[in-house]
Each structure stands twice: as C-alpha cells, then as structure tokens.
C-alpha cells in the first residue's frame, strides 16, 4: 500500500532528479559526488495511533564522500562504520517543522495524504536538498546556523572534516574545542583532539 501511494508521487521526485527501484522505498539523486536519498520509513499499525494503517516518517540522507573520508582519519571509532560509508546527514524530513504526522488511515485515504506529503516536500524538503548539493553548501548552512539541520555531535565531527578539506585548520580545531572540550567529553574525543593538535598550521 505504501509503494502504491508513492508510485503516484514518482512524477514529482523524478522531476527533481530522484529515482527509486520498483517496489523500493528509497529515492536516490546523484549530483557529482554528492548522493541525496529520500528514505520512506514507516510504522505499520502503530500502537500509538488507533485504527491507522501506517505512520509514514520519511528521512533524508546526504552523503559527501570526501567529508566522510576525512572524518575517518580522526573519528573512525566514534562514528558507526555502517554510517560513515553511507551518509553525512540523516534525519527525519519533518524535524523542526510543525506539520502533522503523515497517517494512512484507510485505503480511501490515498489522495488526501498524497497531497499532504507533496505539499510538504515542495515547501520544506526540496528547498533544503537544493541547498545541499556540494560540500561547501554544507559549510554554508553551518555558518548560517541553519535550523533545518540537526546539529548533533556527529555533524560537528563532519563539519570539522569539511573545514580540514578546505585547509581551514583553525576553524576545524575551533569546532572541536567548542563542542567537545567539556567535562566528560575530553576522554571520549581524545583521538580527535590529538589529531587536530598535530595538524600543521593550527
């Protein structure tokens, strides 16, 4: 049922460069080395919504290979291996938005839900993905304190990596120091501090 619902939205994603395999629920768009994905995560018959067939909870993924490769040099044991080779950013598309949950209530509810999902992607998701097509875009969003990204610890490691790739070592070290030079974190991130303390030109 979920595949059928999204097959009616394929035209929109294809128009924006995304394709999915038949009966798959991941849309993929490659722009140079950057890989963008839209993953249609869902929970069937959720106990927290009585009488609902599925709660659809899409995620976006953005993969900047050069950034992730550099991060492996200093955070190889801090970022899960099944993440570092797949994505730089992964988060729900509805994070920080006030939109209602996407709920498939019954087999007659396709069209209203399709319109609801399409409107959200047009207003929020595609504009964000359009702003994340290159490594430098990622830094731009960070420097502008863009609220559409969940800036967790992993993101700070990747941002530091992006600065290293730009040969901005002082900026990279500042990121690490500001985020992780706190009681309880120095030991966990000691290999990261060691890496940056020995980079030339800091």
Strand content: 5-15%
Outline the low-pLDDT stretches.
Answer: none
Distance between the termini: 55 Å
Structural class: alpha+beta
Q: How many distinct helices?
A: 9
Task: Write down the overall geometry.
Answer: elongated
Helicity, in percent? 40-55%
Global mean pLDDT: 94
Largest sheet composition: 4 strands, antiparallel
In angstroms, what is the radius of gyration? Answer: 19 Å
**Would you report the number of β strands?**
7
Strand order of the largest sheet: 1-2-5-6
SSE arrangement, N to C: HHEEEEEHHEEHHHHH
Summed up:
This protein has 202 residues and is α+β, with helices and mostly antiparallel strands. The protein is built from nine helices and seven strands. The longest helix is centred in the middle third of the chain and has 21 residues, at 110-130.
Could you explain the architecture of this structure?
The model has no long low-confidence stretch (mean pLDDT 94). The chain is elongated, with a radius of gyration of 19 Å. It has 9 helices and 7 strands, in the order H-H-E-E-E-E-E-H-H-E-E-H-H-H-H-H. The strands form 2 sheets. A 4-stranded antiparallel β-sheet has the order 1-2-5-6, with no helix packed on it. A 3-stranded antiparallel β-sheet has the order 3-4-7, with helices on one face. Helices cover 45% and strands 15% of the residues. The chain has 202 residues and is α+β, with helices and mostly antiparallel strands. A hairpin with a 2-residue loop joins strand 1 (26-31) and strand 2. The relative contact order is 0.13.
